[in-house]
Amino acid sequence: VDVIIGSSSSDILKQIIIEAAGNEAETVYETEIKNNPNSLIISTPPGHLSCKRIFFLKWQPSKDDNILRQSIIDFISNVIQNVISYNYKSIAFPALGCGKHGCSTDIVVKTMVREIKSQLKVRQNYPLIVKFIIQPEQQNIYDEFCKYVVAVEDDVHKSSAVIHHQLPETWEKSTDENKILFIVPSSSNEHKTIVNGFDQTMKGKYTQIIKIERIQNIHWYSQYMVHSHHFKKRLNSDTEKRLYHGCPEKSANLIMEDCFNRSFAGVNGTVYGAGVYFSSNASYSHDYAKPDITSGERCMFLARVLIGKTTKGDSSMKTRPVGFDTTTDGNHIFVTYHDAQAFAEYLITYK
């Protein structure tokens, strides 16, 4: 890239960059900090690094969420202004505060990606490539960046994304843009196929299917299809499976709006890893589909899940092991660690 970004408040990151750049960068940095201790930005030559310039900006982490967000917005804005003034065309950002500072990963990643998107949007005629650099052991931070970068790509290219990722033939057209749930007619082959699969392992565990609803969340579907494309390209094979996920009704409503959010991971145990659990066995998922107190109805999703490369999981795994996409019990359970790795296709309501 043209510019590598560092923060003068992160001693570890600053030292790593300066050591990699060499004596020239170190001398300039020390001279500048001595002559201009209150300077917002210190610019040094690249030294041994493959860039044109290194920027060190003042930035302080905060435990206050609002202050943290604003500080990141200001940081990004200052970087972009200086990059454009030098007429540079590419930048590499660190994951601010996600190391020793222990800042909220969700806030940092979401704010960084959204602010970059905002900056690019108002400068559409200026070609700028932005890269986010994450340490190899920070797999959870990498996953968060993937999630929000894909979401931004979907937002920026929403119309082209929907065209590129052809919508399923079963999807119905609707004049209500906010409607995402559609009843699957009980007389349709679509309905019969879902019931047959559900019934294979659920006989004796349920008395009736109240309804089956198709989930037509275009935003989430587009994210999933982008992810699916990347999986197929990387693995040279289709690893998608149709799997079940049981949960209480309240959780089901959140999932339909905001996908299988990993922030709830661990609620029902982490025997095979701290991710989102799916099973090819509906009767296993049934145990987590807690009945509604009033109606006695239960909710279970039939989801499309990208398995990718999988390995045996255990309770010590906070994220997927390097080189793998999911963990498993070796039989019917699969655990995902990326929100866009699964798409809830149908919601089965039953007793």
Structure commentary:
The chain has ten helices and 14 strands. Helix 3 runs parallel beside helix 4. It folds into two domains: 148 residues, Leucine Aminopeptidase, subunit E, domain 1; 170 residues, Alpha-Beta Complex (Phosphoenolpyruvate Carboxykinase, domain 3). Helix content is 38%, strand content 21%. The longest helix has 21 residues. About 3% of the residues have low confidence. The protein is an alpha/beta fold. The strands form three sheets. Strands 2-3-1-4-5 form a five-stranded mixed beta sheet, sandwiched between helices. It starts with a strand and ends with a strand.
What topology does this entry show?
Elements: E1 3-7, H1 11-21, H2 23-35, E2 41-44, E3 53-57, H3 65-85, E4 90-94, H4 105-122, E5 129-133, H5 139-156, H6 158-164, E6 181-183, H7 189-202, E7 209-215, H8 218-235, E8 240-247, H9 249-258, E9 276-279, H10 282-286, E10 298-306, E11 310-312, E12 326-328, E13 333-336, E14 342-350
Parallel strand pairs: 1-3, 1-4, 4-5, 11-12
Antiparallel strand pairs: 2-3, 6-7, 7-14, 8-10, 9-13, 10-14, 12-13
Helix pairs in contact: 3-4, 4-5, 5-8
